[in-house]
Amino acid sequence: MASKEIKILKEIGKYAATKKLPLWVVGGFVRDFYLGKKTYDIDICVEGKTDALLSFCRKKYGAKITRFETFGTARATLVKGLKLDFVRCRKEVYPKPAALPQVAPSNLHDDLFRRDFTANAAALSLLPTEFFKDYDLFEAKKAIKKGYIQILHSKSFIDDPTRVFRAIRFAARFNWRIEKNTLNLLKKAVKENYLLLLSRARLNHELIKILEEKNSLPALKMLKKYDILKYYSNNLKTPQIIDKADNLTSRLALLAFYSKDESFLKNLTLPRQIFMQAQEDFKLLKNQKAVNYELSTEQKKLLKLCYPKLKPSALKKCFIEGSWLKEQGLNGTQIGQILDIAAKNQFKGLYKSQSHAQKEVLKLIKK
């Protein structure tokens, strides 16, 4: 972490001490700190109310404060993108499997114990007298050093089945193994259909997060291995080339295309813009035709991934236009038929240029 961020955390800790507020950085930040990775999203857990600290950040750094009442958290966004998420230490009780937890103020131990995996259950103090002192109550450093995912208690996957996806996502991201007992409980949760207790929106969100990973294929393979992809499609494939596509819509299109399942996209209930783009990309791959608009850089890359032998002309806007065919005396039905043939021929690389395409189409018209 840069010295500027360290300085800010020290200043917040010093101010918290004047208010007698114990506080720690927790969760993913601590894990990434142990791994030597940079992060600009920092979770701060406070034993007490967070209002004074938020006010301090606003006055001292000009931070924009955003409150998330549903989760009892608040974010202070500082200049240059640094984000500090403040939350009161709390304990959680799940009234039933997959339900949102009931929360109550508590201490650091309870707050760390409520977390998903031991590797994420550590804290670093921000108080001046013990700045960045470890509070490793559940052997997070051991899990990180040895590279394994381990839940904190046996009901973890039952309380929150989304942890099944997170276990796989983190294992794939860091190339860690899932500890034996944890893996057995994960498999049991899947076999007993606890994932079906999640809403469609929560299930979809977990898949999207996996597809947004830099390398999503390892996690997708694990989802397939543990029979979890069935919640999205009966025959969802995991194409080897998926991580060569560097955006979400292209990856979604690849899954649908290789699985021959357009309904997969519809069932995800994606935001409209993402769905429309993914569907357009899917049709590009499926139809194998030149289109009547300019392809984006991402779409050209996607087509070349699936059809590596494509000629450059296949990626250009369709050479033949309806207006030109009308000038040749064709009617509506004929225009549609010829346009379809010309678009397929261009995709196959049979036309070198627009003039070449027009000559070939005129021959076709005369037949």
Overall 3D shape: elongated
Mean pLDDT: 94
Tell me what the CATH architecture of the domain at 1-146 is. Answer: 2-Layer Sandwich
Structural class: alpha+beta
| Poorly predicted ranges | none
**Which fold name fills CATH's third level, the topology of the domain at 1-146?**
Beta Polymerase, domain 2
Main sheet record: 7 strands, mixed
CATH class of the domain at 1-146: Alpha Beta
Number of strands: 11
Span from first to last CA?
A: 72 Å
Using only CA atoms, what is the Rg?
Answer: 27 Å
Q: State the CATH superfamily name of the domain at 1-146.
A: Beta Polymerase, domain 2
Strand content: 5-15%
**Tally of DSSP helical segments:** 17
Which percent range fits the helix content? 40-55%
Topology diagram in text:
Blueprint: H1 3-18, E1 23-26, H2 28-35, E2 41-46, H3 51-61, E3 64-68, E4 73-77, E5 83-88, E6 90-93, E7 102-105, H4 108-113, E8 123-125, E9 134-135, H5 140-146, E10 148-149, H6 156-159, H7 162-174, E11 177-178, H8 180-191, H9 200-211, H10 217-225, H11 248-259, H12 263-267, H13 272-287, H14 297-306, H15 322-327, H16 332-347, H17 354-366
Parallel strand pairs: 2-5, 10-11
Antiparallel strand pairs: 1-2, 1-8, 3-4, 4-5, 6-7, 8-9
Helix pairs in contact: 7-9, 7-10, 11-13
Walk me through the structure.
- With 367 residues, the protein is an alpha+beta fold.
- Among the domains are: 1-146, Beta Polymerase, domain 2 (2-Layer Sandwich), CATH 3.30.460.10; 297-366, no CATH class.
- Helices cover 48% and strands 12% of the residues.
- It is built from 17 helices and eleven strands.
- A hairpin with an 8-residue loop joins strand 8 and strand 9 (134-135).
- Helix 7 runs parallel beside helix 9, helix 7 packs across helix 10 (217-225) and helix 11 crosses helix 13 (272-287).
- The mean pLDDT is 94.
